[in-house]
Amino acid sequence: MGLLTRFSRGPAPSISARVREEGLTYLSAAALDDLHRTVQSLETHRVPGLFIEAGCALGGSALVVAAAKRPERRFNVYDVFGMIPPPGEKDGPDVHRRYEEIRSGGSTGIKGATYYGYQPDLRQTVTASFHRNGFDPERCHVRFIEGLFDDTLRIDEPVALAHIDGDWYDSVFCCLARIEPWLVPGGVLVIDDYDSWSGCRRAVDEYFADKHDRFEWVTRARLHLVRK
């Protein structure tokens, strides 16, 4: 029985409800609950390695990971902390339509707030949300790393969890290529946009075309890939 089929079910943790109430995430309650329980399962089974989030937006899902992990577990959060980069030629029309909406200034934020990509200092906004919810990033061993994944995502150590929320093909493929070789047995890749954006799905399908036998594909609120 796989790691993700062993954890218990129960009510959504309070942190998941809180980040949704505060408008800090686009994720559903079920997706946040799955993420929280996946982190708890990795901690319970003492799966070693770094935790990663690639793409944090307003920081809601990162807060859920921080709340579920042991404080001493290192957690790196990568983001441009600003406007999402443009899609590429391997992304479908759905992606390009969405990017044009964002680029033109027509995107609305969560609960009618300003879209996060238009905010002037998103990194500070995310940091303030951590403090407001009782998680000092330094004490919790959380690092916010600003820049494009191509420039910042340099992995050279074991990884236990990666929550990949890069939206478009190039960003997701970069994350997979940089992280997957370092994923430990029992480690988990949570793919945020596999069922949402064509570029993400294509990146995952192409990257794992010759790797299916090494991973357990688990469909929950989102796709979880567990290294066997």
How would you explain this protein's 3D organization?
- The chain has helices spanning 14-21, 29-44, 60-68, 93-103, 122-132, 149-152, 169-179, 198-207, and strands at residues 50-54, 75-79, 142-146, 159-164, 183-191, 215-219, 223-227.
- The chain has 228 residues and is of the alpha/beta class.
- It has one domain: Vaccinia Virus protein VP39 (Rossmann fold, 3-Layer(aba) Sandwich), CATH 3.40.50.150.
- It has a seven-stranded mixed β-sheet, with helices on both faces.
- α7 (169-179) packs parallel to α8 (198-207).
- The longest helix is centred in the N-terminal third of the chain and has 16 residues, at 29-44.
- The termini are close together.
- The model is unreliable at 4-12 (pLDDT under 50).
In short:
With 228 residues, this protein is of the alpha/beta class. The protein contains 8 helices and 7 strands.
Features of this protein?
228 residues, alpha/beta, Rossmann fold, 7-stranded mixed β-sheet
Task: Itemize the secondary structure elements and their pairings.
Elements: H1 14-21, H2 29-44, E1 50-54, H3 60-68, E2 75-79, H4 93-103, H5 122-132, E3 142-146, H6 149-152, E4 159-164, H7 169-179, E5 183-191, H8 198-207, E6 215-219, E7 223-227
Parallel strand pairs: 1-2, 1-4, 2-3, 4-5
Antiparallel strand pairs: 5-7, 6-7
Helix pairs in contact: 1-3, 2-3, 7-8
